[in-house]
Each structure stands twice: as C-alpha cells, then as structure tokens.
Design a protein that fits this description.
twelve-stranded antiparallel sheet, 2 helices, 42% strand
C-alpha cells in the first residue's frame, strides 16, 4: 500500500469514528452526574448507571435521540427509579435509554394514550420486537421531567449493550464539543487511612499500622457547583503502579454492589455527596485493572495518586506513608 493510499485509508477510518459519536440529548447542556457514582436511593445502594445532563431545573425541555435508531421499549411509569422512559436501539448495536421524562414526544404520546386507555394508570412496560418506529439523530423523543426518583428535572442518559447486560460510560460515546463550556477541576479533598479521615495536604506524611496500607480517597470533579464522580484513579507506591480503576463499563449483575468500589463512609443525600473511593480490597470488579496493594510489605511509601475525569482534567497528589510500631 502506498503512503498516500494509507493516509487516505486512515482518514476514512478516523472520519467514520468521529461521525459515529452520539449527539448530546439536550441542547447546550452540561453534565451534572457521571457514570458509576454512588447512589443510595431505591431499595438498595447502587451505581449511577448513566450520565445526567442539566435541563436547567426546567421540565419540558426537549430530549433528543442520540443517533438514528428505532424504539425497543417504553416504560410508562411516574414512580420507580426511572419514571417515564424511552429505550432506542441504534445501527451500531448499542441501546440508549432516556429517563425521568415528564411526557413523551407527540408521535409517541398517541401510542401512550392508547395504552393508558386500555391498561389505566398502572405501570406499563411495552417491548417492540420490530423496527417500525424509527427515530432520526436529533429527533425529539420526549421532554425533561422528574418522574421516578429524580429530585429535580434533568435528563438521565444511558448506553447499554444490545442485550442490556452491560452498562457503558456514556461520555465515551458522545460528542463532547457539543457540551456547554463550563470550568471544571479535579479535587482530592480528604483521605481515609484504615478508616480514619484526614484532610489532604500535598506532600504531607500519614501513618498506618496494618499489614499493608488501606487507603480511600474523597475525590471529585467540581463543575458548575456540582460534585461529579471521576473517570480513572491510578495509585503508585514508590513509582510502582499498585492500584488502577477506570469507570468505563459495568455488568448489570453488579449494579447493586457499589461497595466493591466505595468505602462505607460514602454519603449521598439530597444535600450532600461525599464519595470515598477504596484503593484496596479483594474486589474483582472488571473496572479494577490493577489491585496489588495487599502485596506491598514495606514500612515506608512515597505515594502518588493520579486522578482523571471525563473532561480532560488530571490531578496528581503526593504524600508519604509510614508504618507505626
């Protein structure tokens, strides 16, 4: 293959990848919650299974299809976790879910009215086995609301596998240049060492007494006064990578196991969110790529923690650990 043909082939592939990214379902919006954050709502603690986009505390804001696709499910329900929900399937084989709607698009609303007239006001979930109801990229599928467990109106958006057994980080799929530009920054606020909390100060010295250091960090991205979960954490002991987690995908069967990742001191209320990420333990969660902390048997460590978010921010935080006794 000649050099010019090779370059052309690369550009074609790159172009197809760029144009395969999904559109943001809300115009001129920004992210207010990220994938795999801790949640304590519902019947049991669980991971946040998608991304939330701001609708500026308004109901009735148009929610749009992320790409060309067809309807596979409607959930007509003002309660539950998701409330009024639309699920589409796309040509790439993934499914997208849009939840907490106040109402459906005009096209779907006719179908919903027929279903309600037959089944009443009870929860109605309808699966569509054919591809008859198609949507174009950017077409309105519904309007923002706070049905389900939404405390305030917003757009909840998920990306799932075709069989809906795997949840994916939606921010890997969307065109981020469509998001409203909002200043953001990665912060490490505090550290848990063997369950005891310390305010983090750069280059400080902390102490542990166990067989190996059991660390958790309170970390987040601060964006438009919202505290968001991070995308990736890497921890090094004396320049050796001993823990690495990426919040990229989650098997649905692990949805109610957030304590695989979060320390039990994690707090989530309507007024407060403090997420403590465990950087140790025996979890085999697939998002954890390296977990060798328990193999470290030294008495002194120079610790470096790198924290990355979905918006290109990275923070590097250092401190020393000394074993007591």
């Amino acid at each position: 293959m000649s050099k010019s043909v090779g370059v052309l082939y690369f550009l074609i592939i790159l172009s197809s990848l760029v144009f395969s990214l999904y559109a943001v379902p809300v115009d001129n919006s920004y992210v207010t919650a990220t994938f795999m954050e801790f949640r304590s709502t519902g019947s049991a603690p669980h991971f946040h299974s998608g991304v939330d986009f701001s609708t500026f505390l308004k109901e009735g804001v148009p929610i749009k299809s992320a790409d060309d696709g067809f309807l596979v499910r409607l959930e007509i329900d003002k309660n539950g976790i998701y409330g009024m929900t639309v699920v589409l399937e796309h040509m790439d084989g993934y499914r997208t879910l849009y939840a907490h709607l106040s109402k459906f698009s005009e096209r779907l609303d006719k179908l919903v009215s027929m279903l309600k007239s037959e089944f009443g006001e009870q929860r109605i979930e309808v699966e569509f086995e054919n591809e008859d109801i198609k949507f174009s990229r950017g077409e309105i599928i519904g309007y923002s609301g706070r049905t389900g467990e939404a405390a305030k109106p917003h757009a909840h958006f998920e990306v799932r596998s075709k069989d809906e057994k795997i949840l994916y980080n939606p921010l890997k799929f969307i065109e981020k240049n469509q998001l409203r530009v909002v200043q953001s920054n990665v912060i490490l606020k505090s550290i848990l060492i063997e369950g005891k909390e310390y305010a983090y100060t750069n280059a400080s010295t902390y102490y542990f007494s166990g067989e190996y250091p059991k660390i958790a960090v309170e970390a987040y991205t601060e964006l438009a006064k919202n505290l968001l979960g991070v995308k990736e954490i890497r921890m090094y002991f004396s320049n050796k990578l001993v823990y690495h987690i990426i919040f990229d995908e989650l098997p649905m069967q692990l949805w109610e196991r957030p304590y695989e990742v979060y320390d039990e001191k994690t707090i989530m209320t309507s007024l407060m969110y403090r997420g403590f990420y465990k950087l140790h333990g025996d979890s085999n969660l697939g998002s954890i790529k390296v977990n060798d902390v328990d193999k470290q048997k030294m008495n002194n460590y120079n610790v470096k923690i790198e924290i990355l978010d979905d918006f290109g921010n990275q923070g590097t935080f250092t401190f020393s650990l000394i074993k007591r006794g």
